[in-house]
Amino acid sequence: MSLERVNTWLRRDPVTGKRTRPLYNCKNCGKSFFRSSGRNQQYCSRKCWSKTRFLPEVMPCRGCGIPTAKRWNVYVCSFECLKVTRSKPSICPQCGKDFMRIQGCRSKFCSHKCSTDFNIKKEIPSKICPICNKEFRLPSMRSVKNRICCSRECFSLYNRGERNPLFRGKRRANRGTTWKERSQEARDRDKVCQAINHEDYEGWRQEALSVDHIVPYRMIMEWIESGEEHDPNDLDNLVCLCRKCHQKKTTGIERRLLRGDVIGFISKMKSFVGEERTIKALSLYNLYDEFKGSRRIPYVCQ
User: Fold this and answer.
1) What's the pLDDT tens digit per position in 145-171?
2) pTM for this entry
3) Where are the domains of the chain?
């Protein structure tokens, strides 16, 4: 007879011959129960398991010693006990009173009244408006502490030209000798707005189409002034857009190319006028062929 067969007989009841299972005590109520086969069961029922599962851990309070759950990431029963455990002696700079200051608290005063009385005594800083030369006081609010001008009217006059974050450089009214002919040729060729995601709006068909340079005109002119020979009004570099689409391209997408991000410019123009048309315009001025292996070109438009 094998050893395994002997062990199986030893685990059986000597009278009935049935196999016996060991008894275990429940961790919650202490009741004896049989475990299910293959499970490391520690409770007699799901009810006992849920009672112990969701009970908070109880420890003596650090201030008074009463058993309590964790609060404010510390075992304390009340805010007064928290003050006792996390406070240090301090002196109020307004009234000179000794008080217990909680660690981590930014307030240096014993009460809100002392804080307001102390801040009223502070001198309010003043500035001189660069537009009207008028002296004005800054409010104590953080959001307007960096105010430059005394009013909105002065700020609208101040925030122009190079001071404006949307400033794109000095614009040229003249587009060259070939501009009239080429712009008319572009209108005859395209006839409608060429933007892929063009959205119709009221009266857009009655408006005159804008002829836009895919590679900005002023960017090409700076290369021409440096000795390169390029035609900025090449028909492959012109595209007809409606007023709204022209504004999107000029104020948003065009900035990537002006910063030197050729690949980023192509990725945006791909969904605007098409990738093939964009690459063709960039290739006219050697922007794509020379720098297609790099994400950025060593040029930043001033």
Assistant:
1) 678 888 889 988 998 877 876 666 666
2) 0.44
3) 59-109, 125-140+148-157, 179-284
